[in-house]
Amino acid sequence: MSYKSLEDKIDQGTIFLRYNVKIEGGASKPEDDPDVAEILPTDEPFRPISLTILNQDRDKAIDLVKKSLDDGVSPIDIINNGLMKGMDAVSLLYTKGIYFLPDLMLSGDAMMESVKECEAVLGHKSETKATVVTFVAEGDPHDIGKNLILMFLRAGGFEAIDLGRDVPADRVVEAVKEHNPIFLTGTALMTTTMTAFPKVVEALEKAGLNVPVGCGGGAVRKDYVESFPMSFYGVEAYHCPKLADAILKDKKDWKDIREEYSDIVGEFVPEYS
Fold it and tell me: What is the distance between the alpha carbons of residues 14 and 78, in angstroms, rounded to a whole number?
């Protein structure tokens, strides 16, 4: 059948009506999601600030934050009740598969730049819950996973120290001594670089340092990570703040995390089923 004869058989009017927005209805907004609605604040000026983060509007977020600061709103309240609520909603939509990596990065940038405005008024960095050190395994130049972890941790109220890419074990040990983190996160994309993780653990043990090491990345698997001590397999970047909260509040160690991972992150995780 030729394209011409096929085209003649198609009722163009029906196709037009099928995709007519008036009939189908407009696209729903992110804030209309019922679970998101429970997270977002309802009062001024926090709701519009949270919506700018949800909608990845960096310039508008900064403008609203500056105006709120000029109006005398506490910078701490802006961070906790506006910016972080917006980022919590973004994280939720990511877990649902509604938002994707570009959404995360844009929302994260809008939040962090807005936080800087608040910190400028405070005169110091905003208070954080605790410190986590992040690094990419020695020999590995891929840092997207590490950057996502940084964003989720900072949005969750933690001080996240970024050691960068291709980090040798002795540098990790130095950072642990300097920053006293509650845990480490290491990422590796390649099978040839994930072998750096047990070397990091060995270096920590030799230095007498006992700190949980979350290991994850494209090439990394749970059985490999659990073949050496002090470590647990990090499944998703957005799990990191929940893991950090559990370590901080409930004094979980690496053995506890291995046994209770799904309960800690609050969802079914096939790798830990």
Answer: 50
pLDDT digits (tens, 9 = 90+) for 35-45: 999 999 999 99
pLDDT at 207 over 70: yes
How crowded is residue 172: how many other Cβ atoms within 10 Å of its Cβ?
A: 27
Model confidence at 70: pLDDT above 90: yes
d(CA 209, CA 126): 28
Instruction: Please tell me the number of Cα atoms within 13 Å of 169 on its side-chain side.
Output: 17
Residues 161, 131: contact at Cβ < 8 Å?
A: yes
205 has pLDDT over 80: yes
CATH 1.10.510.10 for domain 21-122: no
Q: Give 127's pLDDT tier (boundaries 50, 70, 90).
A: confident
For the entire predicted model, the pTM comes to 0.77
User: Domain 131-272 is of which CATH architecture?
Assistant: 3-Layer(aba) Sandwich (3.40)
All structural domains of the chain with their residue ranges = 21-122, 131-272
DSSP per-residue letters across the chain: --HHHHHHHS-HHHHHHHT-HHHH-PPPPGGGSHHHHHHS--STTHHHHHHHHHTT-HHHHHHHHHHHHHTT--HHHHIIIIIHHHHHHHHHHHHTTSS-HHHHHHHHHHHHHHHHHHHHHHTSPPP-S-EEEEEEBTT----HHHHHHHHHHHHTT-EEEE--SSB-HHHHHHHHHHH--SEEEEE-SSTTTTTHHHHHHHHHHHTT----EEEESTT--HHHHTTSTTEEE---GGGHHHHHHHHHHH---HHHHHHHHHHHHTS--GGG-
pLDDT for the residue 11 = 64
